[in-house]
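Severity: low
Component: inverse-folding endpoint
Summary: output formatting inconsistent between runs
Steps to reproduce: submit the following structure tokens with default settings.
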């Protein structure tokens, strides 16, 4: 049987785990392809897939997220196992670690059979910020070869009879929902702008509008990102900001009296603040541990 073991590993530690898993499976007679996610064109020709990523601020590298999202339809038809590598202490050895929201959502979206977190590695002479700064206090190798091989052996035993897991379509991901939020935010802000433009000076209008814009998105963004399957923070921040920009340009060309307020600083400062607010909230929400009562399976704890 053909098994794909793939990973995203900015500093090589997770790649080492992937190779260990690959070796264990090979020793048990499987035909293994072990490769970084970027180099895998498709998982279609495999009977099972094992995919893992390093944790950085509780998130997987984009390389792995893209691989999984791009191939979600194929992965739903295969038995899939996922792993993360991160903790630079012995916490991974002391019981299952609850996956962060982003990873739990992907696990559920694919219908992966298991997700496990192994210890990580940070070399003392690692290059680049912030890894090098962190290495001053946290370097070390917490990958436990025995636990990794044991887990790989369990997976190897399961593969011949494994069925694809149960996946869930995530309403939080819908395109309509993605564009609804900025529409609501922009509508609220437009009403405020119309009121301000009618009763206040241009300076007061610009100042209050620039304060209100991030405040409105500060209320909307947590609600959007909390739903399982919500889109990634960066594309969301770009889309939402672009939508508000386009709608503001249209509004100022159609409604007399908005042109002055929605030009120069009045146009760009609120947009910048909406972008930053959405990005930061999205990032924070995606790194939080999955809520205990969420409707998602955390198979490794079952
Ligand atoms: C900037 C930075 C952020 C990190 N954030 C996390 C984290 O949120 N959770 C975690 O468990 N490990 C975290 N780690 C530890 C890494 O996940 C660990 O070093 C891992 O083994 C790196 O894998 P790689 O060598 O494949 O890149 C972080 C490390 C660095 C340098």
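Observed output (run 2 of 3):
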């Amino acid at each position: 049987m053909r098994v794909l073991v793939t990973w995203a590993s900015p500093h090589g530690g997770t790649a080492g785990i992937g190779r260990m898993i690959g070796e264990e499976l090979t020793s048990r007679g499987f035909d293994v392809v072990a490769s970084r996610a970027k180099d895998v064109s498709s998982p279609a020709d495999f009977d099972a897939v094992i995919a893992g990523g390093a944790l950085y601020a509780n998130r997987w590298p984009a390389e792995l997220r893209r691989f999984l999202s791009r191939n979600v339809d194929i992965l739903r038809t295969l038995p899939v196992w996922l792993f993360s590598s991160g903790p630079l202490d012995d916490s991974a050895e002391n019981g299952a670690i609850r996956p962060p929201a982003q990873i739990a959502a992907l696990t559920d979206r694919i219908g992966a059979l298991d997700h496990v977190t192994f210890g990580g590695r940070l070399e003392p002479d690692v290059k680049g910020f912030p890894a090098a700064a962190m290495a001053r206090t946290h370097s070390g190798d917490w990958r436990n070869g025995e636990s990794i091989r044991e887990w790989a052996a369990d997976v190897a035993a399961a593969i011949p009879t494994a069925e694809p897991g149960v996946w869930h379509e995530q309403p939080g991901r819908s395109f309509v929902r993605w564009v609804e939020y900025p529409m609501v935010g922009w509508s609220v802000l437009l009403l405020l702008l119309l009121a301000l433009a009618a009763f206040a000076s241009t300076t007061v209008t610009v100042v209050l509008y620039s304060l209100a814009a991030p405040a409105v998105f500060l209320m909307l963004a947590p609600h959007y990102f909390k739903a399982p399957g919500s889109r990634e923070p960066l594309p969301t921040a770009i889309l939402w900001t672009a939508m508000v920009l386009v709608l503001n340009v249209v509004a100022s060309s159609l409604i007399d009296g908005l042109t002055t307020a929605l030009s120069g600083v009045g146009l760009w400062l609120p947009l910048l603040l909406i972008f930053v607010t959405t990005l930061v909230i999205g990032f924070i929400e995606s790194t939080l541990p999955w809520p205990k009562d969420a409707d998602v399976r955390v198979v490794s704890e079952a």
